[in-house]
Design a protein that fits this description.
This protein is α/β, with parallel strands linked by helices. It contains nine helices and 16 strands. The strands form four sheets. It has a six-stranded parallel β-sheet, sandwiched between helices. It has a six-stranded parallel β-sheet with strand order 10-9-13-14-15-16, with helices on both faces. Bound molecules: ribose-5-phosphate (R5P).
């Protein structure tokens, strides 16, 4: 990275920020944050800022964090930042990419445009792009880079369970299963999922023998945990000897961790895109490489 690039982060992502700063060779500073009794937030950034600033902010708990990004990005410009990059390992609001019912907000488009107005570049990992092909269509800023953690998760799975049968719990996971399976020649398959509600999904297992197999479910997001839980239950009923889970974004909202563990899942492995006790795969090298490639192309 350019010597003048500064990494700004928030206190709750200090560990990830330190890893990224060290991989990318950047100095880092924590944004001071004060929450008033009424819930409003005040931020304080270091002043003045260099020309190039990178903001690290994963967008789990997105509603308050999006307001904070608005305050941080606008303030950074006032303090001298000319090129602002957002590194958001988890990019929220990507799943609502159409109005499923008349009158529904298309959150992906609205949030994507909001971020594109604030930042010159956005880097994220395994964004949930279903009906759009590229991140730039969802986040129309000059540079929009979607990375994948599938190779890193695949290596972790291979180190823990080299004979794993890799299963994607729904059709959208096929893209990550394909990458991971090719890398380590895992046997693999992809389920079909029908969603009936936030916590109600039906899953159909693929036509792959699971009897006696150590299965690893690979997916992008665990939110309510019901997708993984339902897939795990079916796999164990079908004779799998164990079911482990490897995911990029460990959101695990509410009781999701108990839901997944209660379904019989043995190990849960996740990247540090979202801080969680299951984190065991660091994204810093991947993110640092992306920052350096953006710099070379700008
Ligand atoms: C959606 O299709 C994603 O790939 C995940 O499968 C989904 O977001 C998981 O949600 P939940 O944990 O609430 O079932």
């Amino acid at each position: 990275m350019s010597e003048t690039t500064l990494l700004l982060h928030f206190e709750d992502e200090r560990a990830q920020a330190q890893s990224l700063a060290s991989e990318a060779g950047m100095p880092l500073t924590c944004v001071e944050r004060h929450v008033f009794p009424d819930g409003e937030v005040k931020l304080r950034l270091p002043a003045p800022l260099p020309d190039q600033v990178v903001v690290l902010r994963s967008l789990d708990q997105p509603n308050s964090k999006l307001v904070e990004l608005l305050l941080a990005a606008r303030t950074a410009r006032e303090l001298g930042a000319k090129h602002l990059t957002l590194v958001t390992p988890y990019l929220a609001y990507m799943r609502q990419d159409i109005a499923f019912q008349p009158g529904e907000a298309v959150s992906q488009k609205i949030v994507g445009q909001f971020l594109a107005q604030l930042f010159d570049a956005v880097i994220t990992v395994d964004p949930h792009l279903h009906r759009v092909r590229t991140l730039q269509e969802a986040v129309p800023c000059p540079q929009a880079l979607a990375l994948t953690a599938a190779p890193l998760l695949a290596s972790h799975v291979y180190s823990r369970c080299p004979d794993a049968l890799l299963i994607g719990p729904d059709e959208e996971s096929e893209q990550w299963i394909r990458v991971a399976a090719r890398q380590h020649r895992f046997d693999h398959g992809v389920c079909r999922k029908t969603r009936h509600g936030d916590k109600h999904v039906d899953i159909e297992l693929p036509d792959v023998p699971v009897q006696g197999r150590a299965v690893v479910l690979l997916d992008d997001i665990a939110s309510s945990g019901h997708t993984l839980a339902q897939a795990a239950r079916l796999l164990l009923q079908a004779g799998a000897s164990s079911v482990d889970v490897a995911i990029t974004h460990a959101l695990f909202s509410g009781d999701a961790l108990q839901v997944v563990q209660g379904a019989g899942v043995r190990h849960i492995w996740s990247t540090d895109a979202v801080a969680h006790e299951s984190n065991c795969v660091g994204l810093a090298p991947l993110l640092a490489q992306a920052l350096s490639s953006l710099e070379q192309n700008s």
